[in-house]
Amino acid sequence: MLDAYFPELIANFAASLCSDVILYPLETVLHRLHIQGTRTIIDNTDLGYEVLPINTQYEGMRDCINTIRQEEGMLGFYKGFGAVVIQYTLHAAVLQITKIIYSTLLQNSV
């Protein structure tokens, strides 16, 4: 039974990770467009000891993409991606621990 379902779980994990890596820049653009014009203060997760004000006005999606690319470079689209990495690391750990526990239970029941 473990051999039947575990490959599906791994495939689902890999597909979710790939989609998050591919679509994260679009999420960044959409979030920036959503909070523009507001007096938003966010935590500086890169340094961890200060907050950053966000005061931006974009003229549209294309302007937002160009501004991020010019001011922050291509890595600017992946700001905050560390939280996603931590999420998937924990997800992978849970999958591995579950596999080990389930394998042990199957061996003990035989």
Automatic annotation (TrEMBL):
GO cellular component terms listed in the entry, alphabetical order: mitochondrial outer membrane
InterPro entries (alphabetical): MCP_dom_sf, MCP_transmembrane, SLC25A46
Keywords, ordered alphabetically: Membrane, Mitochondrion, Mitochondrion outer membrane, Repeat, Transmembrane, Transmembrane helix, Transport
Keyword Mitochondrion assigned: yes
Solcar repeats: 3-105
Name of the protein this chain belongs to: Solute carrier family 25 member 46
Primary location: mitochondrion
Organism: Balaenoptera physalus
Similarity comment: Belongs to the mitochondrial carrier (TC 2.A.29) family.
Membrane topology: Multi-pass membrane protein
A Pfam entry, by short name: Mito_carr
Gene3D superfamilies: Mitochondrial carrier domain
One biological process term in Gene Ontology: axon development
Keyword Metal-binding: no
Subcellular localization: Mitochondrion outer membrane
PROSITE patterns in the record: SOLCAR
